[in-house]
Amino acid sequence: MTAIRTAGATSQKILLPGNSYTSASEFISNGSGAALIKVTNPNGSTDNLIFDVHKYLDSDNSGTHASCTSNNVAAFQTLGNWLRTNRRKAMLTETGGGPNDSTCLTNVCQELDALNSYSDVYLGWTGWAAGMFDTSYVLSETPTLNGNTYTDQPLVKQCIAGKFK
Predict the structure, then answer these.
(1) Which residues neighbour 60 within 8 Å (Cβ) at sequence distance 6 or greater?
(2) What's the predicted TM-score (pTM) here?
(3) Domains parsed from the chain with CATH numbers
(4) d(CA 115, CA 52)
């Protein structure tokens, strides 16, 4: 961290990833939190040092299945409380669920509601598979093109775009 800050990046946010694919549900138990909480800026502050966490909603947290089996609310509450206690912040940089799966529509919305309820420690989230991903990709958030009209995926329209605060 010292080298980055000394090189001139004195006010930029820096994401700090953990172990086990930086899983939000394992961030505390796998030692990521304990290790990364020791990372500070050269002046000893923790300003703009953000823990980078991932959490998918499928059965194995891989983001490779269209079905959602969890809403991850408990994981984000546990980590959110730990972040509050330790006066640190995190960002969910990968999440997603099947764009047309009704369970995912419910679960992803609940997950993002949980993050919003901890907006003092979660800086936001990034949905995985947006942009130039092929719309046939299992977690695609890319709008579909029909003629000259783009249509948002139901998951994006209902859960992601509608949750920004």
Answers:
(1) none
(2) 0.91
(3) 2-163 (3.20.20.80)
(4) 14
